[in-house]
Design brief:
mainly alpha, 2 helices
């Protein structure tokens, strides 16, 4: 009978050890799951930040494209002025400012009225 009692105690101890082992595995799994959720949330925050940066980069690209268009427009105007200067230097076009000075309205800008007083 002592053998049976001893055996029962040993079997009970093994069963308790088995339950403790299972419980420890469940606790370890819960900790890993918690860590995984924490990492997942951090990755989501990083992803949202990356999307925000991407949006800002797209806006900067649009701005640069707009500036590039303006520069191209200015470049075209500079080329036109350069062509006119070349014509004047080459003598193919006469400089007509002196001719225009003899006209009374030559110095007035378009859209501006004369501001001097007149004798009535």
């Amino acid at each position: 009978m002592k053998k049976l009692i001893g055996r029962t105690g040993l079997e009970d101890a093994l069963q308790r050890l088995d339950k403790l082992t299972h419980e420890e595995v469940r606790m370890a799994t819960a900790q890993v799951l918690k860590a995984t959720h924490t990492v997942d949330e951090r990755v989501r925050v990083v992803a949202a930040t990356v999307i925000g940066v991407d949006d800002r980069v797209a806006r900067v690209e649009d701005t640069v494209a707009s500036v590039n268009e303006r520069v191209a427009s200015i470049d075209e105007r500079v080329k036109a002025v350069d062509d006119k200067v070349t014509e004047v230097v080459d003598g193919t076009q006469t400089f007509s400012v002196i001719k225009n000075l003899s006209k009374p309205d030559a110095l007035r800008r378009k859209g501006r009225k004369r501001s001097h007083a007149t004798n009535s």
